[in-house]
User: Fold this.
Amino acid sequence: MLRFLVAIFSVFFVCETALCGYATIFVYHRFDDGRYPKTSISVESFEEQIKFLKKNGYRFVNVKTLYELSLKGSIPEKTVAITIDDGYRSTMKAFKVLKKYKVPFTVFLYTEAVGNYPDYLTVEELKELKKSGLAYFGSHLHSHPPLLKLRKKLSEKDYLSFLEREERLSRERFKKLVGYEPEFLALPYGDYDPLTLRFFRSKGYKLIFSLNRGSFSGNEFPVPRMVTVDGIKNLKRFKFDLRIEPLPVIAHYPRDGILKELPNEVYFDLEFPEKYKNCFVFLPNLRWKRAELVFNRILYRGKFPDFKGKAFIGAKCFNALTKRWAEYFFLVAR
Assistant:
């Protein structure tokens, strides 16, 4: 009886403090498109990934179902979401695989291009995807704008005016294309800063997706995704990414967005620090650097590398309970 109670307590304690359930959200762009190797994956590799997930009991959800699960406060283990950004015509190559294995998926539509430009899905192809019952659609905005470049260039007033127009055009075109209004948004180029996120949240988007590396417990904002292309992913790496847990970060420095000056330290404050060890931070150009874990803070002191444009900053620690790595990333720009 005592062993039984200890086992029950242990499972409860692990789930409360180590984020047992989480979703891994994979993002794809092009399929079998040799012109763009940095954003393309072969259909053969894609099918290999889907077969692995099917064989090993992973549950596929679209982003609407993922949102509904997150509202319940617990995402089941082995939950996966397949997302495809932009709406290139090569999406139809992936669709053959997804239809073969009956996998639900989400396509984020670049609304100016879809139905208009040669490299993008036609209206008839959109109808075919929708008719299958497997495809769900979200917004990727209208003109696929480089939001961080515009944020640096424009005044706050002019930037918000631009976002108002962009969001309105994308919403109108999206409804015309698929018949309902968008509830979910994938940020073009993964670009955001606090003002951008506040704006789109005010427009009622239920989940906003980034290109920040990581997995989703229901708390991360914006929602992280694992970028998947041939050049950096093979099946071994794909399996590794599936085992990455969300790192429960409650605050970090520097903040997301545009850096006015380079910081002299980087830190991440954890909700459950007692479960983690062997922590590292990810910095522009330097990659992973070992960090201290001081009370609840992952701390890195040292010269911060200068960089141009935008960069991801991250942290990872080893979860002693689950024997998995946990990661958290955010975006900054200069």
The chain has a mean pLDDT of 92. Residues 144 and 155 are 20 Å apart (CA to CA).
